[in-house]
Fold each of these.
Amino acid sequence: MPFIPHTEEEVVAMLGTIGASDINDLFDEIPRDLLIKDLDGVPDALNEMEIKRLMQDRAALDIGAKCFIGAGAYEHHIPAAVWDIATRGEFYSAYTPYQAEASQGTLQTIYEYQTMVTSLTGLDVSNASLYDGASGLAEAALMAVRANRKSKSRRVLLTAGVNHTYEKVACAIAGSQGLEFERMPLDIETGKSDVSVLDEQGDPPVAVVIQQPSFLGTYEDADAITNWAHANGALVIAVVNPVSLAVLKPPGQWGEAGADIAGGEGQPLGIPMSSGGPYFGIMTCKEKIVRQMPGRIVGRTTDLDGNPGFTLTLQAREQHIRRSKATSNICTNQGLMVTAATIHMSLLGLEGLAAVALRSQVQTAKLVDLLTSIDGVTAAFSTPHFHEAVIRLNQPVGPVLDALAEQDILGGYDLTTDFPELGNALLICATETKTDDDLESYVKALANVLAK
Amino acid sequence: MGEPLIFEHSRAGRRAFAQAPLSTNEDNIPQSLRRTDTPTLPAVSELQLVRHFTRLSQRNFSIDTQFYPLGSCTMKYNPRACNSLALLPGFAGRHPLGPESHGQGYLACMFELQEMLQSVTGMKAVSLTPMAGAQGELAGVAMIRAYHVANGDDGRNEIIVPDAAHGTNPATATMCGCTVREIPTGADGDVDIEALKEVVGPNTAGIMLTNPSTLGVFERRITEIAKIVHDAGGLLYYDGANLNAILGKVRPGDMGFDVIHLNLHKTFSTPHGGGGPGSGAVGVGERLKPFLPIPVVGKQESAGETKFCWLSEEDIPQSIGRLSGFMGNAGVLIRAYVYMRMVGKDGMKRIAEFATLNANYLQQCLKDAGFQLAFPTRRASHEFIVTLKGEAKTMNVTAMDFAKALLDKGFHAPTTYFPLLVPECLLIEPTETETKDSVDRFVDALIAIKEEAMMDADKVKGAPYSLPVRRLDDVKAARQLDLAWRPKA
């Protein structure tokens, strides 16, 4: 019996203790007519060798392409030590550290994570993670409404370059509590938000969301937008890429007062792309609004003997205490991903993380230069970009991407649906994992496809 | 002696050079956008790092090192193959927005996982996107609301929740813009049917139930409850936290539930990871199919060829929408898929049988040893409740004290003080993967603690003594917030 250790003798002895003659007797409180005989939708068991063969065959179908897609998930080198340690059974098979004395390893790791991630965002406090960057925006918006009691508005203003999927997710999660999301127009020359509309606003929004770098790889005028928001009684929510923060000005230093909440997708910190998850959502904020923060938080304290130790704290915000009045329904978060990210950040250090950010920027810039040397390809914007950039093709993007995929080049993210105002636009990304030869192979393939 | 913080191992100028790319100054990031301060990341060698985090790991209890009978959390063994196969480069390295042509292996697994989950739950369709149980709950209640709104029944915004429910149930209802109506539990552990009849009405959106309930007993009048709620125009939501108890024996779909979430990190043995990631797949009956969260995996057959594809906004236009940046916790889903294939058709019901056998055996042993059961006339499901209110009264030793003393004896504590309506309770769930021997040793440990408490209550109240730290000052933690380390100026 897979994973069940009982011997026949033990079963007999245990039933004897219980006073039952058969295991089925233990189900005698279940109405008879509800019991089922068979599960026809589940195949017969495979042993480990058989399932390994099946999974290897299937994984082999999905491998071998060179990936130039970013759009919220990024291929970075993950040092071997990261998952080697994160999958140690003591981390992998532990649960939420409710029994603090028996969970100091997980708790100290989260405390170290909170230190690193708040330091990157330039804010005071962090929680122990949310599910991912997209759902994190929904939680941040709900938190902003709770924290900004002076505002009557339920409208959240997004910069033009906020990931469209994040907006959809935020609507699905926070929409039923009356939040509305509205997007600033895009300046199609610069790829940045058109800030001139800010002065045409009627009632100011409850919060402004600034994604930096934007989904299009460009840089918003984060200082000016932050100052406008604060002058108009709105909170500022930053959506950031943690790798970029090794180099870029942190949200806590935007404008005069800094962003109030900063979050984003944690995946670039040592998490495999893995078809979209599990990743983790970063959430940090100013200390004065920490009691509105959702999710678990770890604090350092002392034990009965006065020695330092770690424990979950401020739990009165959470669902297991506050029930229907909790800050969120979140319970399980993405603990193991935070463990991996903490190991990853520690191993790279600031210099290593900055090198990843800069190398990625340089490789993407090279790719843009090479691709725009092809007839029919132009750069969409003249402004600087981080490690993603938009190029424009002289023909529809979809069929071009299909043709590239046939040559095992995943050429980027088609922007036609999300940003129709940009025409035949394609979002490309080259991280530090792409060599100059990789870039050349993309250029060659695209030149061939466009020449047909 | 504690393990220093990683920052205390750090020395400026040290680095794990081989693990990051060479730096460059050829970038074109404008000076005005750069940061000028130095964030607090450590500077350590790879060996220092490996030692630090290995030592930290050793300061944890885990399933791999200890019996972990945490009620309602299903801390069963997490098979190694599930992890190693999910990390195959073809799966771990796949970009979520990669084309379907480069994802047929992954999509095939996901399609089959949907089919298997449909079969074990008795539902009509499954979406795998919710990233944890609580997000599955959110999806479920949002679907119930969407169904009523689509029927022009906007006023139905009350969610009925038994008082024994997980805290996530009422918190979810609030997040979905609903109000919560709580109903009491009868003395036998079943829902108070008369109270239910009183609260249902034209405003009822639905009821959220866990069955077996968090009290560790099967809700015997479930069919009657389903009828009452359906007759009132409401729908039934099944919280799948306790599905392990009935897997392959009874199905929520057959009990009359309209929507269910599963905790794949409980029933289907994906790791708990120190607090996640989970996965909260949802299953629905016919009525809620149009509202499933997207994306869902579909199958196309043409000219003898099978192709798997994503179903999204265009295919499911009434969907409640997207809940994650991509398609949920894909890597967790792969682990659950491997587990289900290894357990197979016959193995599913064995899970429920042996989880129930272990729980009833442990319950009987503790009863025989003089511990008081919360529901002594009932069968245990896969878990049960001991109440220590007698011990608390006579010896002044609480459930918390027993929990901490268990840690000294090498056992993780059961869930304490939940459900809230049973005083001084331990909610105990052994799971099917524990041997009789480890269950016996756990019984011996509880008996020994009780004896120690009779001799010297203060000693038990001071436990634990053998762990990295003794009891922690939670009040200080909340009053003098220390949530991040900062270098001395």
Amino acid sequence: MLQPRSIQSSLNIRDKILSLDFILIISILVLGVTSMFAMYSTDGGEFKYHTNSHILRFFVFFGMFFFVSFISIRFWHETSYFIYIGVFILLLGVKYFGLTSSGSKRWLDLYFMNLQPSELMKIVLILFLAKYYHRISIERVNSFRYLLLPITVLVAPVILVATQPDLGTSILIAAGGVVVAWLAGVRAKFFTISGVAMLALLPIAISFLKPYQKSRILTFLNPERDPLGAGYQIIQSKIAIGSGGLFGKGFLNGSQSYLDYLPEKHTDFIFTLFSEEFGFFGSLFILVLYAVIISRIINIGNVTRSNFGKLYCYSFATAFFIYVVVNMMMVLGLLPIVGSPLPIMSYGGSSMMAIMFGLGIVMSCKIYKDVPVN
Amino acid sequence: MLSLGSGNTVIKSKLINRRMFLITTAKVVVMVGLVGRLISLQINQATKYKSLSDKNRFREWKLAPERGAIKDFFDTKIASSEPLYQLHLVPENSKDLDNLFVRLKAILNITDRKVSYLKRVIKKQKPWEPVIVSENLDWSDFSRINLFLHELEGVEPIVSVARTYPDNSSAHILGYVSQISAKDLQTKEYLKELAVPGMAIGKTGLERKLDEQIIGKVGYQRYEVNAFGKRIREIKIDEGQAGKSFKTTLDYEVQKYTNELLKDKAAAVCVMDVYNGDIVSLVSSPTFEPNEFVHGVDKDYWNSLIKNDKKPLANKALSGLYPPGSTIKTLVALSALENKIIRPLDTFRCKGKIELYGEKFHCWEKDGHGIVNLRKGIQRSCDVYFYEVARKLGVDRLSETAKRFGLGKKVLDDFIEERSGVVPNTKWKKKFIGQNWYLGETLHSGIGQGYFQSTPLQLCLMTAQIANGGFEIKPRIVVDGNNDNLRNYLKHKNENPNEPLPTDLLVSNFDLKPLFKNQEHINLIKDAMFSSSNEPGGTSYRHRLEDPKFTFAGKTGSSQIKRFTEAQREAEVKQESLPYKDRDHALFVAFAPYKKSPICNQCFSRAWWFRR
């Protein structure tokens, strides 16, 4: 029982480096480099603002990923509540001091970057709940008293983000939280009940939706409803992906994107651009990279001994999967356009930062897999 | 404590693993679903989306072909195509039409009326169909638009060509061009491929008759465009083909001169080469300005044309139907001679009127012409003489001759405005009026009144065919090769005075069709027409030209619009005192120069029609 401690104390820098998951690191790096090519294409084949800034961010946050990895999982376990509270304060800050852009208030001006705390909240909520469910005993998981805190820490940021308004991110935050609760053993019945309650509240929720959000949902149900208006994005994205065919139109030859038919091509629709230029095989390549990353994260969850680590890795893997799938389904016309970035591929500092931070903690689980957290 | 915690941990970890397994299974299913969706879009439906992407990417602009020129006989262009700057607007390429119009109003001179008109057009059309903001920009407006082009999304400056006419002297026979209408698209097959916004097509006259060939072949430019409709680069250009040019038999100088003569009168003139039917001049007056129609006619100008009593839009030479009046007397006499009803020297006594069938028939000369034979009858245009001749001849034989000489049917091909007129006979009346023929009507027909209706061009043809010695000619206005058969025949006859072949065989060798039984009868009529214009007492003696180069032989005619009442006839009411629209038609047919010998290369027949 005391052996783990001795192992941990004997970990030197060489051991730490050797125990890194290199397949995961290489996958992330390949994905990062791929995303740079995609970004270069959105800039019309030149190193312009988006490309330069994306490359810089990738490497900065890739460095941060290693930094986070080498910090013991015990530290992350101990500080997770504080981190959550910190991010929550930032979210509140957005409400009062946030920057408004195209009708929604999502960003904090930190002078060196515009931070989107809601992106960080996606990861931090998982961290919080992983610690919470690690700590309470299995009998208490389904008792109502012990459900109150998780519901509160989940609902509060979701409401804050939804009222920014940013429907997509708030749904993704909630999804991450729900996944942790599910993995920790909260009964299916509970999810069913809250699902039904949500459905019952849906009409009320819809009345709170902004007109553009309503129109997005209606448009998703029938994209041809207004082909030049709200349905435009879905239609153009499908055209771009479909016209890519088997092998794609070739690098820098995506006519849909460089002729500006594709909206938001460096953020939400980056996969569309890549898929248009590299075709079915290109899309498959991206999917495989994501599958490898997710399976490596799950694998780290398997080898981690602490339930905190397991809960965190599994939940993060699932959340990561949801981010990828929601984005892809959106651009493939299977979900309404809700605005969710594709992890690592999409342009956006906060998203990159959150994902790298989350991956860093995963890697910390790997390095310190045998370290008990309490 | 520790072991309890450890046991708890193990149970928990098992629970977590079990639930993770479920999630992982779900993940695999979703991933397979995504791949399936990719296969569906990128493999199964790739062709469909590729064509949609190309439809996004490429946009074609049709280029209006240059309309062929119309030239007169001496190759002067009387209708040509000149460069022109236009401004088109593609509504779907503009994000904010209202704002765009505000900007355009600031840059160009566009009225509010025009803007609301354009907005209505845009509503009716498909969003990618261009509308024409301005048909004819001057150079300074055009360059100003190009300067501001980057802020005017959806607007396209176009260099085009447009129909231009040197003046209005040939407006009626050339016709005019104007924008394609919805009806044109439905009725004219050849326009389906051709329809280019802003392209003008022939609406009347030669422009319409020749439209299919003169319009040319449409070209197109294919551009790669971005999502805002901005042209990124040209992919392909097909210049199209300019329309065919046509040479006509018209003489621009004669057209101008004739127009000057007829200025402000309601009148029409046609001049024809009697040997081959080439129409040298065909003018209707008052004329209109054909250049006004090219870019859509101005409302005020249109109203002024419509409200004008003298009907400037009608081509009176082709579509004006008038009783031929006394000009028909030449044919009445010819028909009577050919049918052996009268001999040239048979006489009648004219006392100013005769009473037949219980009705009084007046001669225009109240006091009568006395003893009248055929020559004097034509010279003085004696009505009583022709009442008698017509009575003996009968309307059916008259109508047969009249039709042979080209009355009662269209003279030219494919002029929608041309009308065929009426040559009445007993069958015609039964069929179209449903009544029997009255003998009194034969008498009216004998002086070209009553049911007779003819166009100035028909009378011109009739006279030309008398003037050329009685041979059928096919009038034409577009030069399509030589038709010198009659000239060659006459030349041959002149050079071989002792030609042994009989006339009818010789004539058929030259592919000619004589309209007479005995050419002597034609010569009698010609001589009588000469006397009418050149001997004292002739109805047109006052207007004779004594220079032998220009001596002409003619026949006057006037026809009533309203019958004179007995009271008016007694009061000798003058035409000038009547309202313009009630005055008689005045007609004159003539050919010149008149020579005893039938050989004259510069022979013209002309038919005049005007209101006195």
Amino acid sequence: MKRFIGFIKKEFYHIFRDRRSLFILFGMPIAQILLFGFAITNEINNVDIAILDHSKDATTTEIINKISASKYFSIKQIIEKEADIESVFQKGHVKAVLNFEKDFSKNLIKEHRATVQIITDATDPNTANTISNYVNAILQQYQKDVNKDITIVYQIIPETRMVYNPELKSVYMFVPGVMTIILMLVSAMMTSISITREKELGTMEILLVSPLKPFQVIIGKVFPYIFLSIINAVVIVMLSVFIFKMPVEGSLFLLALESILFIISALALGILISTISATQQTAMMISLMGLMLPVILLSGFIFPISSMPLPLQVISNIIPAKWFIIIIKGIMLKGVGLQFIWKETMILLGMTVFFIALSVKKYKIRLE
Amino acid sequence: MNNNKVIQVEGLTKMFGDFTAVNAITFEVDKGEIFGFLGANGAGKTTAMKMLIGISNPTSGNANVAGFDVFTHTENIKKNIGYMSQKFALYDDLTVRENITFFGGIYGLSRKRIKEKSDALIEELGLQNVANKLVGALPLGWKQKLSFSVSLIHDPKIVFLDEPTGGVDPITRRQFWELIYKAANQGTTVFVTTHYMDEAEYCDRVSIMVNGKIEALDTPKKLKEQFKAENMNDVFLKLARG
Amino acid sequence: MVSISVKHISKSYKSVNALQDISFEVKEGELFGLIGPDGAGKTTLFRILTTLLFADEGTATVAGFDVVADYKSIRNSVGYMPGKFSLYQDLTVEENLDFFATIFGTTIEENYDLIKDIYVQIEPFKNRRAGKLSGGMKQKLALSCALIHKPKVLFLDEPTTGVDPVSRKEFWDMLKRLQQKGITILVSTPYMDEAALCDRIALIQDGKILEIDTPEAIVKYYPKPIYNVRANNMYQLINSLNAYEHNHSVYPFGEFVHYTDNRTDFNPDHLKAYLESRNLSNIHIEKTIATIEDTFMELAK
């Protein structure tokens, strides 16, 4: 036991004396959460738009007022003729132009229909889509207000309600993803690097020739990172709860247990990587290419798995991060208990056991 | 300047903050001489050599290498010297020929000249059978001989060798020294930095640096007489221990 | 008592035969040197004996334990200093020593006597990070770390490579003192001049042992009289000797060339006349004694 404590003490010296690893450990989580929370978002705010109003009557004025009153849009420019639309877009600031037809109000009253064209800059398709949805929503709201005295039979008004994330805050979507990435990075990459560093230095030879047992070396290497990863998970959850007001609907205890399970699976992967790489550089490349990319691209964190081609959907199943994201979304946003996520938990547990078994089997007590 | 003195150093000094790494060293090296530049780790020999090959600026003093001033004409110095160290020699993932062509190219040799040089060099070292093999696959001793020959590809006036033969087997090491004698005989000055004293025995003259100063400078024979020592190792031990 | 016994060990990597049928024995308390250039197979042999590698063929025991079957016992009873000084660069001198003491289940205090001689020299720097030490100090720290658990057998793989002559001298003095405390030492080095400091040596090249004996005996084996030759121009001297029809070997040795002749009735005057005919002057020929390097080259020829 004394040997083991001595070993862990040494590991902490390494971590605290290396500024780079300290930065990855503690700077990254905070930076990533803030970055994803504030900067990278699907919401739109104060988008510049231009108006081309051929009618200039009471109705169009009212609609324009409503639009400019919303926090989503600010009217940047009023243009006078169709020909100007092109040049407005080319200047780049204006993302959408609303083109009200001539005699808008008259048509609406006489023919019960009037047309407004929403022209969006689709160089960024996501934003374009969102803008057009928002404008539609405002128009519909206006229609409802105008028509509230008149009853039209057989009118179907769809009413959408977003559940679990009613305000469609993208941070809710990113927090589970970022937490997954960071736990993966810290656990797998840092352990694999710290083990391969001993190989490079030659100290691994001395450790192997010492009476330390292989599992003691492994646990000694891994233990500090379990500890640090847990701290990281706590920091991330606190940041998201206090800064982004993200709810944790389910049990914190369950969340903690599931996180530890995921951390252990990532650590086992890290050990596995270290057994196949001879240098820190290889270990880092394998961790980044082999773990980080799949976690970002195939876990459903950014791109929905259901819209992936079938082969990728199949591959996504072997990525532990996919299951962990489902689990924490369930706990944090839906507030579900183990009875709803036991399947995912079992899969993750199975994977963890497999990785540990494999890495213990692969860990060499000799140099070959 | 005297045409026969290819290196002239006077009061050359390098300070790092308060620390004097090289303390006013003065010496001269003749054309075609094999000059050993010895010292313990941290005695300042690497710093001194860096100043001579134009990659580090002296704090004070004067030095003239291959006819150029180390303060103002470092680019000309670099064109007129060759450099070989045990740490950096050749690219393991290029073939023998590719390495020669590459280094010839760096020094601006014409294509025709590179071809001539490569053929001559490969023949001289007896590498005909491995000319198109990767350098990484050659034995250490061959690599070092090749590396030395490549450092001479642009016919430099001076070639600087940094611990050239550590760890090589004794026969290869002697073949290596034969190459050095040959280069010196053809008028190339050979400047060897090392802390292996048996390498020092081969030099025409050696200087020994201790704590940034040159404490001894003479032929190995005279140094051994002066310090009543059996070999250069003993000379060094006597000097370094004071 | 035999401390290390190596019997017909062979080992190859892919196409390279790193070790070919190596056999030798080291007695308890002996200082045994493995002398050979880089790539001779010294490190491979050390790794087999320290249980880090399996041999393809042959058996070996260290301190009475088989390197394959009893590897755990060996790991408890040997000290090992790998080729590069394997220390934790970001740990201080004291932390390194403390760490290695702890993983071997001991403390610095317990075995302080053994390392005292060596450690006092670096103790003033005990709070300095190992990465900031000079080569000589790193070497002393690495040796202290390898000794801290009081091993019966000490394996030192090229402990003096990259270290200046003063530190080398001090290091060999330390080994002599350790030997007096009953520790068996197997040391490897590419420097022939260090061979003379060992009790017995094995000359090794290309995975084969050329000779095993005491340094004095090995030198005596040299089959021919050997001559120091000197002249005004070294390069022409070497060329002329190489061109001389009776030469057996011509090797530059510092300011001299070591020359041996293939005739039994060699007369130095004839050689002198020949060299003069080649326009050399200041010719000096005298008989000298063979060194270990001469023997090595003769055997490796």
Amino acid sequence: MAQLFPEWSNRVPRLLLVGLILKITFIVFLFWYFGSPEYLEVGYAPKQPIDYSHRLHAGQLGMDCRYCHGGVEVSAEAGIPTAQTCMNCHSQIKTDSEKLTTLFAAWSGGEPIEWVKVHQLPDYVYFNHSAHVSVGVGCESCHGRVDRMEVVMQAEPLSMGWCLDCHTNPEPHLRPAELVTTMGWIAPDNQFQLASEIIAKKNIAPPIYCNGCHR
Amino acid sequence: MSQSTTYVPEPALVKGNHTFGSITALIADISEKPAPTWWYIAFGAANLLLGLLLVLIGYLVYEGTGIWGITNPVGWGWAIINFVWWVGIGHAGTLISAILFLFRQGWRTAINRFAEAMTIFAVICALVFPGIHIGRIWVAYWMFPIPNSMQMWPNFNSPLLWDVFAVSTYFTVSLLFWFVGLVPDFATLRDRVKSKLAAKIYGVLALGWTGGNRQWQNYEKSYMILAGLATPLVLSVHTIVSFDFAVSIIPGWHTTIFPPYFVAGAIFSGFAMVMTLMLIARKLYGLKDIMTDDHVEKMNLIILVTGNMVGFAYIMEFFIAWYSGVTYEKAAFINRAMGPYAWAYWTMFLCNVISPQFFWSKKMRRNIKVSFILSIVVNIGMWFERFVITVTSLAQDFLPSSWGYYSPTWVDIGTYIGTFGLFFTFFLLFLRFMPMVAIAEIKMVMPQADPHHYDEKHG
């Protein structure tokens, strides 16, 4: 009887088996790497209705974060400033700037400014700004060097794994609460001791159980 | 010295004075000749039901689990009942193929291929439910330890996770076992079929089998090793399925009797399912010489034994509920037998404990009609067993103010019926295209394989 298959077909089952294992590993890798927020979301910098520069206001002028984001210490939301907050200064400064037309329109009774939200968490995550700021997690720990950003950009992945990295090991990210808005804060040499004191004093126990954040 | 033992000859395992050639022809012809008309009708019906299943799964994915009858306090409804039921049915396959093989029970060869196929398809039907019951089907990968940016990892303390591994291991080993046994028979079909394409397909599946001495040696060794690996699985899978219930603290679930009780029930329902399918297949395909009345009797004995084990467990549960002195446990069992689900409890009891008692009589064991009807009754009873366990304990637990009554919706019922479509689509394809009896193995137990009556002299 003639042979049904050529000789090379003897190798096919082995190649298929090895190929299958490699393929599965490769697919998992593709999702793990290219599907992660670290790859997909970091660097997200949408165009805003006004060319507002954090680099100018927070960096060069040295305004405190809390001047505009006033809710950060007392509420879950840091808050987006109203047109009035801007007008506290801009009623006198740059009153003829074309860039501020949208602001003036909003202030004089038009539509509110539709700022585009950059740092989006899923609706099932109950993140609270005040809980983090009041124990000494700096703004820049999550939002990056905003004082250097012309347009606000997402600097960190904000993935659950990234949250847990700090929740399981908070020491490197804690600082005295009065320094939370400082940009470019450098950890002192005795950071671990300092952080341990803060943890003991404020009784910090970051939740790593599900309903800590998914209530 | 007088002989204290006498040789009782076993009845021949293959009747009808077949030759090796006629056995091959009898089984291989099923795959080679055109399918009978009833096959097309049955396949069409199975496909319709499969379509129903797929539509309802689509509806579930679109709408969420709210379309099922589950709500507070019964959060586990037909999905888990059907899952346990199908996995239980899947137990006969490994028992027949592995344990009976290790015990050198020659009669298994007539039904092992068949039962293993049934096992694999039943486990596929079972796996549908854990796959879809999560509602958010796109996160089904959370059941597996796959690295991800959420640092989510399966909870290794949870019996539900053990279940994922137990059932998938069981499925893999059963599939391998089935396939290894099929290799020589695929080669037989490869060499017999006329069509070039069919020869190629069977040839791929036969893995280049030539029937040489070296190949047979390796085959026997690997078959033995797989049987050894599969044997603990017969016990482990349903043990772990029972842990899904027993590890929780709900009264009526939190009992140590669950593992053996579930395993016995699984073998019970699995054998009943093999019986149902076997009696249909041997009639439609004229295989009475291979699947003889002796086989039916032996299987009925196993159904009787396991049925009594299950009955013992039912009664023992009540004894322990009383003996434990735990109020909640007692209340749970009184509610089972006399509460709102008493109708389900007594249906279960009648089907699983009373009905197999007919098999004490040899006449009943060998009666095909009785065997057929009881095999179906047993599987109805085993479905109700899972219903009783799941629903009664959840509907009435510690807090009377939160008690409720569970009813399924039409989607629950349709999904369950749909899994029969999935099962029979696979099974009919198996009957049509694969050798449904292990051709090579059955020849080893034929009277013709023992031309010198070697067994009788040295018995």
